[in-house]
Amino acid sequence: MSRAYFKSKVDPDIRWYARLSSFTILVFCLIGAIWGFQVSGTSFNWIFPLIGIVESILIEVYVRYLGYTITDTELQIGVKGLILKRVVIKDVDAIQQVRRNILNYSLSKRTISLIMSTGKEIVLAPQDQELFIAQLARLNPLIEVKLP
To answer: Starting from the edge strand earliest in sequence, which strands make up the sheet with 82-88, in order?
Structure first.
């Protein structure tokens, strides 16, 4: 059984946005904890900064470790061993290169779209798109590749 791993491409503006949103949520959680302690006087408000810290760590892990693993029969989309989605390669009808601002298992605007036999579309952004497409096409020769 062969396995090929492809790291997700991350645009600098997406990385910046993720870090900014993590910092903003962390600040609001800290403000909520301070305000809640002053209003209620209880020490239960430690949960707010904890939520902010956990959320910030989760966003950073997602941005840093999102990747795609191709096995003999399926494409696995995941983060550090945690598989978020499995796609059967035989169900892929077409691959096309798209450029959009919608994030769907991708952290880049330069993406490829897998068109499934059900009509569903999955948007990905592997760093080495040519090798990724070649690997999928080798495993399923019926895939129609639509590149500009």
So the answer is: 4-7, 66-70, 74-79, 82-88
Structure tokens at 105: 């298992």
Give this prediction's pTM: 0.79
- pLDDT tens string, the chain, 148 residues long: the values are 678 999 998 888 878 888 888 888 888 877 877 776 666 666 666 677 777 788 888 888 888 889 999 999 999 999 988 899 999 999 999 999 887 666 667 788 888 999 999 989 999 999 999 999 999 999 999 999 987 7
Cβ atoms of residues 122 and 106 within 8 Å? no
**Closest C-alpha to 17, from 83, 101, 100:** 101
